[in-house]
Amino acid sequence: MSAIHLQVKIHRSAFKLDLDVQLPGQGITAIFGPSGSGKTTLLRAVAGLEKNQQGRIQIGEHIWQDTQQGVYLPTWQRPLGYVFQESSLLPHLSVTDNLNFGLKRVLKSAGNAQSDAAKALQASIELLGIGSLLQRMPTELSGGERQRVAIARAIAMQPQLLLMDEPLASLDVARRQEIFPWLSKLRDELKMPMLYVTHSAEEVTRLADHLVVLDQGQVKAQGPVSAVLTQVVNPVVVGEDAGALIEGRIGEVDGQWYLSRVDFEGGSVWMRDAGLPVGKAVRIRILARDVSLATSEPHNTSIQNQLRCSIQSITPDAHPSQVMVVLKCGANEVLARVTKRAVEELGLQVGQPLWAQVKSVALVA
Question: For the chain, which terminus, N or C, has the lower number of CB atoms within 10 Å?
C-alpha cells in the first residue's frame, strides 16, 4: 500500500489537535506521547468516531475524508479494524461466536464472499494462535488471550488499516510479555498497516517501525523509530531510558560461554544467548548510560563490546554535569551519556574518531 496521509484539526475549548503527516503504508506506526497529548483523539478521528473539523484522511488510494471536497465516510463504511484497551468481547458469546459476530459487517460489504470471509477468519485464528480457545467463554480467558481474540476479530474483517489503542494497557507485566510475540508476528506477517497508540517506551522499541510523537496536540517528532529515538534535540525518551535501537542478525552463537553475537552494519556486539539461531533477525537496545568512550583502542578491559565510531554531536543533557554524545557507528547511531568533565579532559570534538565501549545490550525483539 502507498502512504497514509493524515491531516487532522480538532479544536476544543481546552485542547487542540493539529497535525499533517505522511506515514508508511506498511508496518506499525506507533503514536507515542504522554496522557492528554491527543493520541486516542487522533485514532478516533481516523476511525470517524471524532469529527475531523478540517483536513484529509487518506489510506493509500482510498479517501475516507476530505473537507475541501466534501467527502466523509461514516465509521461503518471505513474498512478498518479497531482494538481497544479492553477486549470488548461479548460476554454471553463463545470465542467462536464473537469472531463470527465480527464478520457480519464484512459479509454485508460489496465484493466480500462468505468463502473469502471464512478464509480470512481461519487465517486470523492461526496467526494469533487461538485455535485452542474457540469453545471457551470470555470469562475463561486470561487478559492476554482476550486481547488476542479481539485482534483476531479485527483482522478477520480484512481491513485496509488496523487501529490499536493501547492494547496492552490493561494487562499486567506477565500478560504483556505473553502477547508481545504475537504482536511482533502481526507486524512481520500482516500486509496491512497499523497505527498503534502507546505511552510505553518498551512497546515502541519492541514493536514500532515508524514513530510519531505527540505533545499537546502537535507533532513533536516523526520518522523511522531508530532515528527518532536517538535525536537529542527535544528528545523523545529521556532519563535512564535514553538509548539507541539497532536492527541486526545473529552472526554467531558461543555455546561455551552462553553468548550470541549480533552483527549489524557498522559493527557487532555480544549479548546473552537467547536461544536464537544464526541468521535470525533481531532488534537490540543500547542505553546511553551503558556506553563509555575511549580515544584509543581499549585493552585489558572486561568490557568486550567495542565499536569504532565518530562523534556526530555533543549536546547538553538534562543535568548540567552531563552531555549526550551522538556517535556514528557505520550506518547506525549510538548514544553515550558522559560528564562534561570527561569531554573536556579527553578533548572530545565533533567529527573525532573514537571507541565506544558497550557495557550491556538488551534484546528487545
Answer: N
- Give the C-alpha distances (Å, rounded to integers) separating 41 from 13, 133, 155, 203: 15, 33, 22, 20
CA 152 from chain center: how many Å? 19
Q: Into how many domains does the chain fold?
A: 2
Residues 226 and 248 in one domain: no
**CATH number of the CATH domain containing 314:** 2.40.50.100
What percentage of residues in the chain have a pLDDT greater than 90? Answer: 62
All three cell numbers of 200, joined, read 510505553
pLDDT band at 108 (very low <50, low <70, confident <90, very high): low
Do 183 and 312 reside in the same domain of the chain?
Answer: no
| Whether the predicted pLDDT of 113 surpasses 80 | no
Q: Are residues 181 and 60 in the same domain?
A: yes
Q: Are residues 194 and 92 in the same domain?
A: yes
C-alpha span between 82 and 309 (Å, rounded): 43
Q: What is the CA radius of gyration of the chain?
A: 23
Domain final position from 186, 212, 234: 234
Please, which pLDDT band fits residue 110 given cuts at 50, 70 and 90? Answer: very low
Take residue 2 and report the three cell numbers written for it: 502507498
Q: What would the 3-class secondary structure string for 75-97 be?
A: HHHCCEEEECCCCCCCCCCCHHH
Q: Are residues 78 and 226 in the same domain?
A: yes
Residues 363/271, Cβ–Cβ less than 8 Å: yes
- Summarize pLDDT for 55-84 with one digit per residue, the tens: 999 999 999 999 999 999 999 899 999 998
Same domain, 32 and 142: yes
- The one-letter amino acid at 231: Q
Instruction: Give φ, ψ of 324 to 5 degrees.
Output: -110, 125
User: Residue 82 sits in which domain range?
Assistant: 4-234
Q: How many CB atoms lie within 10 A of CB 260?
A: 24
The pLDDT of residue 214 is: 93
Residue 345 C-alpha cell reads as 579532559
pLDDT digits (tens, 9 = 90+) for 26-39: 999 999 988 889 99
